[in-house]
Design a protein that fits this description.
By secondary structure, the protein is mainly beta. Helix content is 11%, strand content 51%.
């Protein structure tokens, strides 16, 4: 599971960069969770960036990875992203 989006890294535009969610961690109380994204040129390449996010978490929702991807899609920097 991953998404693709156009990103700019150190002034270079990377079309269809591969963005993967890693390490979802649910907070005590089960209402929020944190996760990290790695942005890569391709699924096999090293990460260009690693960015942390925090979002609401639902025990009755999809699994944490799916919830993380759905949260990313609501953020302006991921507008227009596509599922892999």
């Amino acid at each position: 599971m991953a998404i693709k989006n156009t990103v700019t890294f150190k002034g270079l535009v990377v079309d269809k960069a591969y963005i993967r969610v890693l390490m979802p961690t649910i907070s005590p109380g089960n209402t929020r969770f944190e996760f990290v994204t790695h942005t890569m040129v391709s699924p096999e390449s090293e990460a260009l960036t690693a960015t942390g996010y925090e979002a609401p978490y639902s025990l009755t929702g999809a699994n944490p990875l799916e919830q993380a991807y759905e949260h990313l899609k609501t953020l302006p920097e991921f507008e227009g992203c596509t599922d892999c």
